[in-house]
């Protein structure tokens, strides 16, 4: 039996990946920082990238892994690389990493993890999604918090467009990368079907939620201060503001056919996503 360790299994991609792999008949071990199993019919372990005492039991008897970064850490590679090296030494063959379209192989942080996988993992895949549609509905996300508070979205993205993608579609690609007999051994850039500006997003949200939503065009310094005032550590606020600049300059203005090609079904569009999640705001 192939056993897959799913890190972040209570999250936007980890949970549907754990459920999808269970449905495919694989043995799934969910890993979160909590003790409560997020998915029934799976083994569960407590796992924290920052707590080495949790790593041994999590990796025991594992063949494949889904990994995503520890939250709000500027350079997650410092915590992730030693765990992955230990995993390979212990017999893990395949690792599927959730990175981001904005992070190039070999760049800082997850770019280093991407490089390790491509060069040293027996089998590997890197998911490089664009920005998640869930950022507007997940109450933990700073945009969702701003929308809830006063109906504003504050960014330094200007008129730049983003191929927003539903985390469920990212997870569907991840399930194939983990479950397929033949390893994908590639990086998948994953987007939704349209590239939208934040003005477009605000217009969609206003229509579906039936309340005025406004995109505040901030300067990089204003956007960084806004994130900091919302409680985000300054180093992470600086990173997100830098990513806003990439969007403003057009780096995310693209769509790919990855979801259709890998899963056989088209990715969800933003209007349909917002309608399906309208209850979040009622
Ligand atoms: N949001 C975007 O637009 C976007 C775009 C591209 C890429 N990404 C990537 O997606 C990831 C986050 O996705 P998300 O925002 O949707 O969050 P999420 O997956 O819903 O939640 C983050 C998950 O990470 C786990 N986690 C956090 N810190 C951990 C730690 N120290 N040790 C073990 N597990 C830890 C959490 O597990 P617990 O259950 O233990 O809390 C949680 O399940 C990031 O790696 C980010 O680079 C996000």
Automatic annotation (TrEMBL):
Domain NAD(P)-binding: from-to ranges: 8-180
InterPro entries: Ergot_Alk_Oxidoreductase, NAD(P)-bd_dom, NAD(P)-bd_dom_sf
Pfam families: NAD_binding_10
Membrane-spanning ranges: none
Matching PANTHER family: PRESTALK A DIFFERENTIATION PROTEIN A (PTHR43162:SF1), PTHR43162
Name of the protein in its database record: Oxidoreductase
Organism: Corallococcus aberystwythensis
């Amino acid at each position: 039996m192939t056993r897959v360790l799913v890190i972040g299994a209570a999250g936007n991609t980890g949970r549907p990946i754990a459920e999808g792999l269970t449905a495919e008949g694989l043995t799934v071990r969910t890993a979160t920082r909590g003790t409560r199993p997020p998915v029934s019919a799976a083994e569960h372990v407590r796992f924290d990238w920052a707590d080495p005492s949790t790593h041994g039991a999590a990796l025991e008897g594992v063949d494949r892994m889904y990994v995503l970064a520890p939250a709000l850490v500027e350079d997650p590679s410092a915590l992730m690389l030693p765990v992955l090296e230990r995993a390979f030494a212990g017999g893990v063959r395949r690792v599927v990493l959730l990175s981001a379209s904005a992070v190039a192989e070999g760049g800082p942080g997850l770019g280093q993890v991407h490089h390790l996988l491509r060069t040293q993992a027996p089998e590997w895949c890197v998911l490089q999604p664009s920005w998640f549609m869930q950022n507007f509905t997940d109450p933990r996300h700073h945009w969702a918090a701003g929308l809830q508070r006063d109906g504003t979205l504050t960014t330094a993205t200007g008129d730049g467009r983003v191929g927003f993608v539903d985390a469920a579609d990212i997870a569907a690609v991840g399930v194939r990368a983990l479950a397929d007999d033949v390893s994908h051994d590639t990086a998948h850039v994953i987007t939704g079907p349209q590239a939208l500006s934040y003005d477009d997003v605000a217009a969609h949200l206003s229509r579906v939620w039936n309340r005025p939503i406004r995109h505040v065009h901030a300067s990089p310094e204003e956007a960084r201060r806004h994130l900091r005032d919302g409680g985000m550590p300054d180093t992470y606020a600086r990173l997100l503001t830098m990513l806003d600049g990439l969007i403003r300059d057009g780096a995310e203005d693209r769509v790919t056919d990855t979801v259709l090609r890998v899963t056989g079904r088209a990715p969800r569009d933003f209007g349909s996503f917002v309608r399906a999640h309208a209850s979040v705001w009622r």
